[in-house]
Design goal:
single chain; alpha/beta; 8-stranded mixed sheet; two-stranded antiparallel sheet; about 50% helix
């Protein structure tokens, strides 16, 4: 058969199927392939029936159907499965052909794969794809990086199938070389962890503290969705709280309180530690899921460890508004930390990231899509060299407006024994970041006392290090300067 397909996609789970159907809707001819080839026939007979999608029952057949340069997209589980398929594809591809990994791969794996495939004359793209099943079908956020020479050959496909905002702007653009696309997707997922945890803490404060019913909280989230907090996650929380089980009781109340995770949040925290960037809110969100997994231990501990009654007295309507303000302020901190991390990664890996463009890519299609992201794009459009979102005039004013309510919520939660790790760490980061002098001078003195790690002085130039013989019987030799 004469080559006639624009792109092939391997992996017919729901995301893969929906991306194929999305491409078909936009006029592209797609070859579908799956390791279990029976799934190819099933897909063609059901979901893809009546489309131009072509099925392939082997990799050689799939490759033979592709126009040059051949474009093959993998939608398979991250890790060894990607490497396995790359090795299966290599004997059948030619220099200039393109392999695309659309899964949640670790950016360091993408760095390695770009180098490996370019050494063989091929091009490689590692792209984040966000939006879940519905996004894949109707328009996801797509974050491609890898071999720059590959971008012109996939740009038309990716930008046509991506979500559109601001009168047609696609939520897809080139992110950068090597693993930049997967890195930005990883940070997206870290922010997603934070957003979800913040919403859960707001829910806990209303449910446990204010004694609100699911229906009452549904109304609150419906109101929040109409304002500054308009976002996909607020929207689905509103809908979840309205959902009833078969007996008419709220379904959410019957779901076991143990959260799962697939690893991208953890990867984000590990990267932040390697780069020395304090993404404290995302870290607490990851650890909150870990604590939730200790269900049996928590149940046992609840019978032995004492604390205050969670009931919050006073004006419930006012406190619910305080919670909204705390959620908004904490969300600003979460994104500020995420952008600090991307800026540090760009410096470390020599990526030229477009921070406003990233906000635009996240404005539609993805899980963290929200009205809020438009303001982030404006912030970087106004000042491309902005070091921290907290310093942007819009966000600075927003926190100045919200911080009293934020402090009240964190204080009341602590007094009532309602855990709010994300609200609390966001406030602590804000207060630390705006503090001209922190107690780290004492910490550095301690390090010099027990380990001769040296310190700098406020009355001497930066970069000049000192050591003190604190006990009078130690030596004067320092172990070396510290790393800031």
């Amino acid at each position: 058969m004469e080559p006639q397909a624009d792109i092939a996609l391997i992996g017919l789970a729901v995301m893969g199927q929906n991306l194929i159907l999305n491409m078909n809707d936009h006029g592209f001819t797609v070859v579908a392939y799956n390791r279990t080839v029976a799934k190819v026939d099933e897909f063609l007979e059901k979901e893809a029936k009546g489309t131009k999608v072509i099925g392939a029952h082997s990799i050689p057949e799939m490759v033979s159907l592709l126009k040059k340069p051949r474009r093959v997209m993998l939608m398979v589980k991250a890790g060894s499965a990607v490497d396995d398929f790359i090795e299966q594809l290599l004997p059948h591809l030619e220099p200039g052909d393109i392999i695309i990994d659309g899964g949640n791969s670790l950016f360091e794996d993408t760095n390695r794969r770009v180098k490996y495939l370019e050494s063989k004359g091929l091009l490689y793209i590692g792209t984040g794809v966000s939006g879940g099943e519905e996004g894949a079908r109707r328009g996801p956020s797509i974050m491609p990086g890898g071999s720059p020479a590959a971008w012109p050959h996939v740009k038309d496909i990716f930008q046509k199938i991506a979500a559109k905002v601001d009168e047609g702007s696609p939520c897809c653009d080139w992110v950068g070389e090597n693993g930049a696309g997967h890195y930005v997707k990883m940070v997206h997922n870290g922010i997603e962890y934070g957003d979800m945890q913040l919403i859960c803490e707001a829910y806990a404060l209303m449910k446990e503290g204010l004694g609100m019913t699911a229906d009452e909280m549904h109304q609150v989230f419906a109101e929040w969705y109409q304002g500054d907090l308009e976002s996909y996650l607020i929207e689905i929380t509103r809908d979840i709280l309205a959902k009833k089980d078969t007996d008419g009781a709220p379904l959410v109340d019957k779901i076991l309180d143990t959260a799962g995770q697939k690893g991208t949040g953890k990867w984000t925290v590990i990267s932040s530690q390697e780069l020395g960037i304090p993404i404290t809110l995302m870290a607490e969100a990851v650890y909150a899921r870990c604590v939730s997994a200790l269900k049996d231990e928590r149940v046992a501990a609840s019978k032995k460890l004492k604390g205050p009654a969670p009931s919050i007295k006073g004006d419930h309507k006012k406190f619910a508004e305080d919670i909204r303000q705390a959620l908004y302020a904490s969300k600003i901190v979460s994104y500020a930390q995420g952008y600090l991390l991307m800026r540090a990664a760009a410096k470390e890996y020599q990526w030229n990231l477009n921070y406003g463009g990233i906000a635009l890519m996240w404005r539609g299609g993805c899980i963290i899509r929200s009205r809020f992201l438009g303001k982030i794009k404006e912030a970087f459009d106004n000042n491309p060299n902005l070091t921290n979102l907290l310093l942007d005039p819009f966000f600075r004013k927003a926190i100045n407006t919200s911080h009293r309510s934020w402090r009240s919520v964190v204080a009341v939660a602590a007094k009532k024994g309602i855990p709010t790790p994300a609200f609390s760490t966001a406030l602590n980061f804000y207060d630390a970041y705006r503090c001209a002098r922190l107690p780290a001078n004492l910490l550095q003195a301690q390090r010099d006392y027990f380990g001769a790690h040296t310190y700098e002085r406020i009355d001497q130039p930066r970069g000049k290090f000192f050591h003190t013989n604190w006990t009078g019987h130690g030596g004067d030799v320092a172990s070396g300067s510290y790393t800031v």
